[in-house]
Amino acid sequence: MENSWIENIRKDLPELPRTRYLRFIKDHGLTEYDAARLTEEKNIADYFETAVHRLPPNIPVKVIANWMLGDLFSLMNQANITVSQLKVRPEALAELVKISSDGEINQSGAKEVLAEMFASGKDAAEIVEARGLKQVSDESLISNLVKETLVENPKEVQSYRAGKVGVANFLFGQVMKKAAGKANPQVVRAELDKQLTSV
Fold first, then answer.
1. What sign for the dihedral angle of Cα 127, 133, 135, 136?
2. CB–CB of 28/20 below 8 Å?
3. Rounded to two decimals, what is the model's pTM?
4. 180-183, long-range: CB within 8 Å, 24+ apart, which pairs?
5. Which of 92, 110, 158, 190 has minimal Cβ neighbours within 10 Å of its Cβ?
6. Which residues are paired to 136 by β-bridges?
7. What is the arithmetic mean of pLDDT over 113-133?
8. Orientation of helix 154-161 relative to helix 139-152, angle to 10°
9. What is the C-alpha to C-alpha distance for residues 70 and 125, in angstroms, rounded to an integer?
10. pLDDT for the residue 8
């Protein structure tokens, strides 16, 4: 009887920071350093876990940890605020990480969106839409842009095929210029390689 009473009390106790720290390493694959920083304060650990629960299973938890320990903490330090004063809800951070990981916006765009979220409390999707930051991943559109670029730069294409592979970076830049910097870089690179190597 006494044992079950003790068990009930133990169940009602909040998780100890050390236990949480070890769980973050074991369950989320975090480094000891990251786990230590994320469990320094209960509010930070709670925020992290709420964001993690909103993350799709295909995105590593480490990505949320990196965003929090990097850009988010940096913004908080500059503004001299604590996690409980944040306008960025953990669910909103998870949404930003998803949009960024899916390639809808590039890394610098994602940082810009976070800064706006931090200042205004708006959601990532709303900011991406308003600022026109969404990346173009449409393969047929990118394929046409690459084709146009190669037609316009025959000398460079010839140089590339003659072994000067560094020319690909110039051509990549030309495609990105045509796309006003909004094309998904991974898709552009893949399409460029494909068209350059097919004679």
1. positive
2. no
3. 0.71
4. 182/132, 182/133, 182/134, 182/135, 182/136, 183/135, 183/136, 183/137, 183/142, 183/145
5. 158
6. 183
7. 91
8. 90
9. 21
10. 64
Residues 149/175, Cβ–Cβ less than 8 Å: yes
| pLDDT for position 75 | 96
In angstroms, the CA 24 to CA 47 distance is 13
Q: Would you list the DSSP string of 134-196? A: PPB--HHHHHHHHHHHHHH-HHHHHHHHTT-TTHHHHHHHHHHHHTTT-B-HHHHHHHHHHHH
Region 29-51: mean pLDDT is 95
| Neighbouring residues of 23: CB distance < 8 A, sequence distance ≥ 6 | 15
Q: What is the C-alpha separation between 114 and 122, in angstroms, rounded?
A: 10
Query: Within 10 A of 184 (CB to CB), how many other CB atoms are there?
Result: 22
Q: How many CB atoms neighbour CB 82 within 10 A?
A: 11
2 pLDDT exceeds 60?
no
Buried b (16+ CB within 10 A) or exposed e, 91-123: ebbbbbbbbbeeebbbeebbbbbbebbbeeebb
Gyration radius from the chain CA atoms: 23
113 close to 96: Cβ distance less than 8 angstroms: yes
Phi, psi of 181 (to 5 degrees): 75, 5
Q: How far is CA 87 from CA 9, 26, 90, 111, in A?
A: 35, 30, 9, 16
Angstrom distance (rounded) from CA 134 to CA 141: 15
- pLDDT, position 59: 92
The pLDDT confidence band at residue 1, using thresholds 50, 70 and 90, is: very low
